[in-house]
Specification:
This protein is of the alpha+beta class. It has helices at residues 32-35, 66-75, 83-92, 95-103, 107-110, 118-137, 148-162, 167-179, 187-194; strands at 4-12, 16-21, 24-29, 44-53, 58-63. The chain has 3 domains: 4-63, Nucleic acid-binding proteins (OB fold (Dihydrolipoamide Acetyltransferase, E2P)), CATH 2.40.50; 66-137, 5' to 3' exonuclease, C-terminal subdomain (DNA polymerase, domain 1, Orthogonal Bundle), CATH 1.10.150; 148-197, no CATH class. It is built from 9 helices and 5 strands. It has a 5-stranded antiparallel β-sheet, covered by helices on one side.
Length: 198
């Protein structure tokens, strides 16, 4: 597995660069956001990489920061999102904005990225919201402002998942609780009320 590449920037276009590492040129796919921050040709460059292996090809995808690469790996774990679509997402929406959109279920914002339709954006939210929320709680994701109600919702969702309910069922139960106007003061109380709808 290739974790990073460091060398001289030999050539570049909007979505691909060639890095000269001791006389060997390595092709690396990059997002538009990364492409905009590259040095001039001949300049030194270091990219954190994801080594994508398929039956018919091996591809490298490059990122300026480890956090962005790790989030890219999370994105492509979602069914229907391949590496090219993942790069399009990161190139079309700033990383912190994308993380915030996932947590806040802002499907419209996610759908502005190239190659992402409404259904794909909804699936992205469904599969990644609890993971991104958990990353936030652990300090892995910063700068995503949440209201007290949203924090309580996320804590309740994670609690229901830890009880063995899948994410879709847990979210439906929480939404049903909200629709019935069953107010809760704490996440524990919200979990108790939501258990009536799982």
């Amino acid at each position: 597995m290739i974790s990073f590449i460091e060398g001289k920037l030999d050539s570049k276009d909007f979505t691909q660069v060639v890095i000269d590492v001791n006389g060997v040129g390595h092709e690396v796919y990059v997002s538009l956001a990364v492409s905009d921050q590259l040095p001039a040709l001949g300049g030194k460059i270091r990219l954190h990489t994801h080594h994508h292996i398929r039956e018919d090809a091996q591809q490298l995808f490059g990122f300026l920061e480890k956090e962005e690469r790790n989030f890219f790996r999370l994105l492509i774990s979602v069914s229907g999102i391949g590496p090219k679509v993942g790069m399009g997402l990161l190139g079309g929406v700033r990383l912190t904005d994308l993380q915030q959109a996932i947590v806040l279920e802002d499907v419209a914002r996610i759908s502005t990225a190239p190659g992402i339709g409404k259904k794909t954006a909804q699936r992205l939210v469904l599969e990644l919201k609890s993971k991104v929320s958990l990353m936030m709680k652990e300090g892995v994701v910063d700068n995503i402002p949440l209201t007290k109600d949203q924090e309580m919702w996320n804590e309740a969702l994670l609690a229901l998942i830890s009880l063995g309910y899948n994410q879709a069922i847990a979210q439906k139960a929480l939404k049903k609780t909200a629709e019935k106007h069953e107010e809760a003061q704490t996440s524990e109380e919200l979990v108790r009320k939501s258990l009536n709808y799982v």
